[in-house]
Write a structure and sequence with these properties.
Length: 309
């Protein structure tokens, strides 16, 4: 895949001295879904705002589809759709007119067939003549998505798109996102629902304190930083670990009927075979064994909680 967004040594320092972005370089490929993760204030929204032309960087360059966001901002901006965190809509405007108006702002001619298709795909067609002030929070967010897609952008930014949206609407929105990716649209999303990023994204980027800590394919990230947890259910509860099992990194459950063991799947030897042999040697009967992979949330927390140099 070729990059549709090329970010090179991007920085942003505000007049107050706050460094929102510090020398960030990143290429985003055409047709992929990239999840940008980071705690509040990490720099995610600043980076998106710079790419979308809403904030002026203090250093570095960004190209969208080959267009420099500063010297050829019209060409770059026409390729981008943005769904912001804040719900800002004209309260007395009809839903369908909101979408038509935004399409016109990009210089696109009227296309009623496309507007209808777009509203139907977001379950907004029945609300097309409703004033936006009459809509629920979830429906208003759908209108923001429809506006962002009104000019058929090649790149769609979703900044916390499911905040305040119920589970049913969230699933429907992600179905729309998958369809867009299938059509070749590049999706960049930020979310605090890490299970969404784990489910949806092709690559995961982690930002903290204005620095891009990493950006890797999801499977590679899970393999590199993820660990597995082995749970061993015992036939009879233990009062304490026998001497042969001490110093092995085992934890005994409060009830005494289960042992826990964390191991690295990338290691040449996990130690599981030796552990089971030691259990047998100690006369401890095993009833069942199960494993659990580290979640993206656990990996994310371990990354952002590490002290940065």
């Amino acid at each position: 895949m070729r990059p549709i967004i090329d970010i090179d040594h991007l920085s942003k320092r505000y007049d107050s001295g706050t460094v929102a972005l510090n020398d960030v370089s990143l290429q985003i490929n055409e047709g992929e879904i990239l999840a940008l993760l980071g705690p509040n204030g990490a720099g995610k929204t600043t980076m998106i705002s710079i790419i979308c032309g809403l904030v002026v960087p203090t250093g570095g360059t960004v190209r969208v589809g080959g267009h420099d966001i500063r010297t050829d901002w019209r060409g770059a901006r026409k390729l981008i759709g943005l769904v912001p965190q804040e719900i800002l809509l004209e309260p007395f405007e009809k839903v369908i007119d909101c979408v038509r108006f935004t399409r016109g702002l990009y210089g696109e001619p009227p296309d009623e067939a496309y507007v209808e298709q777009l509203l139907r795909s977001l379950a907004l067609w029945d609300k097309r003549d409703a004033r936006t002030r009459e809509l629920s929070g979830g429906m208003k967010r759908r209108v923001l998505i429809a506006k962002a897609l009104s000019h058929r952008p090649k790149v769609l930014f979703l900044d916390e798109p499911t905040a305040g949206v119920d589970v049913a609407l969230r699933r429907e929105m992600w179905a729309v996102v998958r369809d867009l990716r299938a059509q070749g649209v590049t999706i960049i999303l930020t979310t605090h629902y890490l299970e969404e990023a784990e489910d949806m994204a092709d690559r995961i980027g982690v930002i903290n304190r204005g620095q891009l800590l990493l950006c890797q394919p999801k499977a590679e990230l899970m393999g590199e930083f993820g660990k597995k947890h082995l749970t061993i259910l015992l036939d009879q509860p233990l009062i304490a670990l026998p001497p042969i099992l001490k110093g092995r990194g085992l934890t005994l459950s409060p009830s005494g009927n289960a042992l826990g063991y964390d191991y690295d799947t990338r290691a040449e030897r996990t130690g599981i075979a030796r552990l089971l042999a030691d259990l047998a040697e100690a006369g401890i009967a095993v009833r069942d064994v199960s494993t659990k992979q580290s979640s993206l949330e656990e990996i994310f927390i371990s990354l952002v909680e590490e002290p940065q140099a």
